[in-house]
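Q: How would the structure tokens look for this protein?
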Amino acid sequence: MDKLKELRVVFMGTPEFAVASLDALVKAGCNVVGVVTAPDKPAGRGMQVQQSAVKKYAVEHNLPVLQPVKLKDPDFITDLKNLRADLQIIVAFRMLPELVWSMPPMGSLNLHGSLLPRYRGAAPINWAVMNGEKETGVTTFRLKHEIDTGNILLQESFPITSEDTAGTVHDRMKDIGAALLVKTVKGLADGSLTEIPQSDLAATTIAELPHAPKIHTDTCRISWSKPAEQVHNLVRGLSPYPGAFTMLNEKMLKVFRSKKEIVFPKSTEGDYETDGKTYLKFACTDGYLHLLEIQLEGKKRMEITEFLRGYRFN
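A: Here is the predicted structure in token form.
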């Protein structure tokens, strides 16, 4: 019998990113005996109760679903034990208590959106783009107590182009990651993988490597007292969500696409110039950032020419 099909696997994930991995495992013939995802919750303008993307997929494919509010809930722990998983796979899910991740005999593995040990943390895609990286990747690794620190199983890198945003990197990564996850599970099933401690891959101390903390409002606020390249990368790294922003006449202006112009600025940092028809640009330390796609507070997202047709500057 195929060793992959013998493995009893529980999959844990919530957003669309995780669906690609679950789908790849199912199509590879993996024996997914249960899916753990977030509880249904109200969302959208009408606050209708919504299922997670992973739950929708699981229901469509007749996979048993668990939706714990608390991961230490005794009833959830009992239900999880009853699935008798050999291995748990975690993709874009909550931080797990040891009681959960240590449960299966083969432990739990995670798919992370960076080349660990670089960019440990909650937002690896965003930070890699914001920092102007030319390359990123995906890593499968064993879960242990400290977040994103377990032994590495497999990695795959891919380039970040100058035109990429966090959104385009995310969309490529979910498919590359899904394929790597299947390869990892096959390697675990046939015993061909060698685990590598993260410290073995760090050319410097891990503390000196870039990290990927959670994105906060202050992270998204544009500082015009920086080079245009740096501000442009901030815009790319926060697009399409949550969006970099500045203020325009006391209203929040989100910027989703931009281009840089390296030329000695005539204006003071943070001041804008516009012809009222085709361009709106803000002065940085070494040039300008042209806003190409924006959203003013209370308005829809639009191209800059459409915005300028209807906006009256003070």
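The chain is about 30% helix and 25% strand.

The first strand starts at residue 8 and ends at 13.

Upvote if useful.
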